[in-house]
Amino acid sequence: xxxTFRPAVLVVAAFLLPGLAxxxxxxxxxxxxxxxxLAYTTGVQAFIYAYPLLHVxxxxxxxxxxxxxxxxxxxxxxxxxxVLEAGKNASAASPNxxxxxxxxxxxxxxxxxxxxxxxxxxxxxxxxxDAYATNFGDIGTRHNRGAAGKYMVVGPDxxxxxxxxxxxxxxxxxxxxxxLIRILVDNENELEQIHMMQDKFKFKRLDGSDVxxxxxxSVPSTLEPLAALPSLDSSTPEAFWAIINxxxxxxxxxxxxxxxxxQFAVVGIGPxxxxxxxxxxxxxxxxxxxxxxxxxxxVTSFADDITGGTSINGWGYSQANxxxxxxxxxxxxxxxxxxxxxxxxxxxxYLSLYTDSNxxxxxxxxxYSINFAADxxxxxKAFWSITMYDSKTYSLVENSIGRFSLGDRSPELSFNEDKSxxxxxxxDSTDEQHLANWLPAPPEGFYLIMRVYIPKDSVVQQIWAxxxxxxxxxxxxxxxx
Length: 481
Known about the structure:
The chain is of the alpha+beta class.
């Protein structure tokens, strides 16, 4: 990952080092100028820390807000997506085109039992993430080989023993949590069959009764968020802080972060703080408004390149802590903005490509090829894919043949005589001979994500070397290998 903003963030953090003495009324002796700077530097750090709360709230509204154009159902219910993500209308940034999603936002003031059906040899995974988009568990093929079972998900205040018949208890650090189901789709002709699989997943209470869905009216914190994916083009800085304070209060940070979060409260940000900033000192308000602008620039910069692990032939592995970020709040914010939720690397490893073999940014004006040797296909125990994204919108790229990815399940994929595999990438369509192996690009900037599901050790350890993306000579006819 590009480290452009890390030094700046460390400078900001000087105001927030644990152990700094804070008086009963720390702002009394400060001039308006110093108050503004304190609010600005503290606010930037608070914004980065809390960014996932903004993003998760946005998607909770999209799925569960009754006025949302993408309304899928109430909270505490399984919100099934019945089609593969495609084009600009996808539900989240950088979605896969391999699985059907089912996303739920659940209130864990009461324990939840996840009733998981038998899935046989159909790959699936249930990712469990908290309100900060951080994983606290997963269920699926890698663990149970498709066997049915009941799993319990509880909130931070729950205490007790595992009830009879429950395979495992997962403890969410926050009251609100996000279970995300992914079920593999081999081809779109089997969607109806997979819909029936989706419908077999159930939420139950401890007594075996169905969980009662929560209407938006019954969940005060499910308020209309920013008008679009958190963006300064669509909302005022005050709107950002209003949501952050509301979500901080509903989902307090873990005790380990208390010293840091207590210092956010000095400028009116954090659990229990008002969503209305108008009562704050005018200089504090001014600094917080500036902090949103800088904070968004930093988060967006990191979202533009969420690699950070080993880089081989231009392909960047994600950091080993993807999905479980501990204190790496900046990486957490960047990954959340770029993709909302990310699997643990042992479940699915993501390799991102932003440049060609010459180190130049990828653009649809060029023609590229990538050649996998016969003994060097992506080492996946489940399956693999390479998906195309528009670098401006993080969205799948609409194209004339409706193809958004290529992988080991792509129909009619053509191998070379030596069993190697060559894929072709460009905006302009390729000739008929190479059409089955063509991944359409947008006319301008793009990036690729290779997903390796249930990767072999060489991928998890970040030593497997994927081949580079080569610029085709003169941009003319494809090279036949």
